[in-house]
Amino acid sequence: MSRDTATAATDPASHDPSTRSYPRIVVPPPGPRARAVVDRDATWTSTSYIKEYPLVVARGAGAMIEDVDGNRYLDFMAGIAVASTGYGHPAVVAAIKEAADRFLHICGSDFYYEGMAALCERLAKLAPGSDKKRVFLTNSGTEAVEGAIKLARNSTGRAGLVAFKGAFHGRTYGAMSLTSSKARQHAGFGPLLPEIYHVPFGYCYRCEFGKEYPSCELFCVSAIERDLFARQIDPGDVAAIFVEPVQGEGGYVVPPDGYLAALRALCHKYGILLVCDEIQCGIGRTGRMFASEHAGIEPDILLTAKGLGSGMPIGAIIARESVMRWKTGAHGSTFGGNPVCCAAALATLDVVERELVANARAMGERLMAGVRRLATRYRAIGDVRGLGLMIGVEFVQDQKTREPATDLVNALVQRAFSRGLLLLGCGRSTLRLAPPLIVDANDIDTGLAIIDECLTALA
Ligand SMILES: Cc1ncc(COP(=O)(O)O)c(C=O)c1O
Questions:
Q1: pLDDT digits 0-9 by tens, 312-355
Q2: Residues 200 and 338 both lie in one domain
Q3: Which ligand 1 atom is nearest residue 249's CA?
Q4: Closest CA to 440 of 393, 372, 389, 392
């Protein structure tokens, strides 16, 4: 172990991100300890895991991740938009420890505990709109989607489901069937859930109809009525439209103003439920507690997970009381709403509500301004979009043809890793910027400087 590595492992000050001792690369990653874990993992874990780069985590503090060789990274991906309060937030860790000391499990589907009632009440009151809500707690995002499919069909008595091209809703059968992000996520798994229809999303940079906003008058929404409902499925057979208010895996795509409101109106017209999948974009990430608040709409069902527990596995289906009326025993879960996870979620919501929604807005503006400055200098940046700390930077080979620059994004992500910045791509050639919501101006400027350096080297 190098002297620096030994210091990193024992230095209590290194738990304080304000020491600014990151990023710091002491050995080119993967170092020897990381390599040993990577090799062992490669032998024993499922071949389906993606593994973006050989980051082998030892610990984290704030927006800093330290690997097993003592390298310190600035995290701009938050474990895929999960570490909302950063790593080791003292209030969240204390709540987890306190709950773990009391009891780890009792099964919330069958028995009672205060944390579960408190979290359901909190989420019901936080969700957008004035209607009273009820809440079902899950272990993950895909389970929330799965439950929402069941709830939508059960409550409407209809089978049809509409989702969007580019959407990602999860890996279990129903959620996978709603997903239309990458073909390899479906390959070899058919038959998928029937009665699902995919339509183009409000992805203005790559409008499938070749139109321009606002002169298009939201053609992509009216096409659902004019085309899908006229030719393929009667709207009276459609239970729900599933939409990500900001598309995540599909490329951090923010739909145009008026888009979600138009979907809301379409759903009202035909008695279809609007399900907002806020699993990636919710819990303060966009500078509002929920992204659908930006559009001023009230979903019938809102799904959350990822950032809700700061990394502890918990998700939720939040539905209007008029929708969540399924019969006793219709749905349940052994672990969903685990008491330790409920405590993590309640503590996370405290921190996010008190400080981080505002911070996501302020730091998001700083990050967005910085990325826009980069876009004036690098012609490979075709589009910049985002809300709060959910920013997508789409790279193209040519500004005119907009051919995706997939290799460039991959190279950028790898190079940034070797320089101490954790990034992640999404869509075909988009860089997703989703740091923990606790980042400060220094983190933002440091991350931007590394991206700039990497782009200069790759140009
Ligand atoms: C919008 C959205 N929905 C659902 C999911 C699935 O969540 P999980 O991986 O927790 O099952 C994800 C995961 O990336 C997501 O981004």
A1: 999 999 999 999 999 999 999 999 999 999 999 999 999 999 99
A2: yes
A3: 16
A4: 389
